[in-house]
Amino acid sequence: MDSLLLYQFVKTLHILSAVIITGTGFGTAFYLFVVNRSGSVSAQSVVSYWVCKADFWFTTPCVIFQPISGVWLMSKLGIPWSATWIWVSIGLYLFVGMLWLPVVWWQLQMKNIAKHACDTSSTLPQSYWQYAKKWELAGYPAFLAVVVIFFLMVIKPM
Question: Of the four, 66, 85, 101, 122, which is 20 to 30 A from 154 by CA?
Answer without folding.
Answer: 101
